[in-house]
């Protein structure tokens, strides 16, 4: 893939807000290479070791289909490659059989199914699958698409972490509401019992007085517990907010480093092209001038 195309894809993937958008962009890249290629994203539950959902892009729309396929149904070499998360493996002659297992109908028979794992915190979160026709000559589509798959993996990790953060915040808010509701009900009940006990008689007996004192103590304990829980929840919310901020900054720094590395790689590529063109036949001063001109040009994204 050309540096200009790769840089552009990196930019648009970094702005993708969900997996559907990122997958649609990746499918467009695959179709630019071969319109007969099929790209599918599978989501996995690492705890249960299950493939839980299939995302199939088609004409800008992503169809989601629930699945209940065990990861253990895949061959051992494929599972190892998926768990590594940085290598591409293919099913070879068994590609069509595993396409049926995964519920995907190929546009034409006799192709090759390749997969690339997507990991999060060292666990398998999903994998991207590419089905392409067999070729007699030239590189395979998955080889040409490998840089785009790496960029998609980074975007997928960022999107999943973003969704996980919002899910954690939502769960925390729901837990906070439930705890407050529970204690509010308990406090109201204690207040009601205390008021009933006080109004039951003008001159309460010793037993009534003891009951009133007990209810008062329980009410005071409940209010103190509410205060302590509120303080703990506030501390947890502060920790979550700080962690989210640090994670977002880490993503910004990682993107900046990636762009810098890509810029350096492009500069080295230009220098190599100039040296290959010269091949020792040009004047060293002229070659040096060409290198300086190539390096001084702004990198086009």
Short description:
It is built from 7 helices and 6 strands.
Structural description of this entry:
The chain is α+β, with helices and mostly antiparallel strands and 301 residues long. The protein contains seven helices and six strands; from the N terminus they run ααβββαβαββααα. The chain has helices spanning 3-14, 19-33, 76-84, 95-101, 141-199, 206-278, 284-296, and strands spanning 38-45, 50-58, 61-70, 88-90, 112-120, 123-132. A six-stranded antiparallel β-sheet has the order 3-2-1-6-5-4, with helices on both faces. Helix 1 (3-14) runs parallel beside helix 5.
How would you summarize the topology of this molecule?
Blueprint: H1 3-14, H2 19-33, E1 38-45, E2 50-58, E3 61-70, H3 76-84, E4 88-90, H4 95-101, E5 112-120, E6 123-132, H5 141-199, H6 206-278, H7 284-296
Antiparallel strand pairs: 1-2, 1-6, 2-3, 4-5, 5-6
Helix pairs in contact: 1-5, 2-5, 5-6, 6-7
Keywords summarizing the entry:
62% helix, elongated, 301 residues, six-stranded antiparallel β-sheet, Beta-Lactamase, alpha+beta, single chain
Strand content: 15-25%
Please name the CATH architecture of the domain at 3-146: 2-Layer Sandwich
Unreliable runs: none
- Overall form: elongated
Query: What sequence of helices (H) and strands (E) makes up the elements?
Result: HHEEEHEHEEHHH
**What average pLDDT do the residues reach?**
79
Cα-to-Cα separation, first versus last residue: 14 Å
Number of strands: 6
Q: What Rg do the Cα atoms give? A: 30 Å
**Largest sheet, spatial ordering of strands:** 3-2-1-6-5-4
CATH homologous superfamily annotation of the domain at 3-146: GAF domain
**CATH class identity of the domain at 3-146:** Alpha Beta
The biggest beta sheet is recorded as:
6 strands, antiparallel
Number of H- or I-type helical stretches: 7
Structural class: alpha+beta
Helical amount: 55-70%
**CATH overall fold name of the domain at 3-146:** Beta-Lactamase
